[in-house]
Amino acid sequence: MKPGGPDGEDPLALHSRRRIAFFDLVFTRFARRHMRALRLARDARPAPPPGVPLVVYASHASWWDGVAFMLLSRRLFPGRPMVIPMEAAALARYGFMRRIGVFGVERDSPRGAVAFLRTAGGVLARPEAMLWMNAPGRFADVRERPVPIAPGLVRLAELAPDAAFLPLALEYPFWTERRAEMLAGFGPPLSGAALRAMPRPERAAALAGALAAAMDRLAEHAVSRDPARFVLVQQGGEGMGGIYDLWRRARAWTAGRRFDPRHESRPHEPPHHQPGGGPGAGSGP
């Protein structure tokens, strides 16, 4: 199948490594400034079969999902080109995103649905490629059940039976710090061929059930507020910041103590007051 969006463009052909690296750096710095950390649940790391295209279908709780996609894809799946569908009207305001793998989709129109399937099917004909998308097709609270599944995702298995469908749960809870946590957890992959063999209602239920299981597992870890349950993928900012932390740092220095900006410290979690620089810094999975 020949890939192409509504305008006939191939999102993989438009990929620019330099721009992807640049915006990875931009998104990384932005996340560090506004999030405490990106954490991946230790018992929910991705385990897709090798040599097949991937469909990572995620919950859609927040605007932050796009940032999470960039950070996770670059750190967990290096070397795999990523594409992401985005509402065409929104993409028109952010044209640079076409060069980092985003393609436009017309919502709520038969022509848009056909164009999405044509583009996504063409991308997934390449074993090294991966498609990341929000499963509900709209914002949905993490507690909503059953988990909504967009019709385009249900149809996708018919065009990409060789792909592995990988559920991804995302949450952004506040624990003990001023900034929120960015939490992620994957579920076991689903076979595209097995999904295609199901009637569409059963296929939708299977996709929703797998994603709900990953979301429920991540919720248990989030409720624990225990960083030891997670692998630190990217460290962000901690403490209050500003004049208050300057004063606390001065007090620690005069007392001969190491400054720890966190509101609550845990014995098994050392302070991160000087995280490393550049994309991919922090502990990898």
What does this structure look like?
- With 285 residues, the protein is α/β, with parallel strands linked by helices.
- It contains eight helices and nine strands.
- Strands 1, 2, 3, 4, 5, 6, 7, 8 and 9 form a nine-stranded mixed beta sheet that branches.
- A hairpin with an 8-residue loop joins strand 6 and strand 7 (180-186).
- Helix 1 (17-34) crosses helix 2 (65-76).
- The longest helix has 25 residues, at 200-224.
- The two termini are 35 Å apart.
- The model is unreliable at 1-6, 240-245 and 270-285 (pLDDT under 50).
Short description:
By secondary structure, the protein is an alpha/beta fold. It has helices at residues 17-34, 65-76, 88-91, 110-123, 151-159, 192-196, 200-224, 242-254; strands at residues 35-41, 54-58, 82-87, 102-105, 130-134, 164-171, 180-186, 190-191, 230-235.
Key traits:
285 residues; alpha/beta; nine-stranded mixed beta sheet; 8 helices; 35% helix; disordered N terminus; disordered C terminus
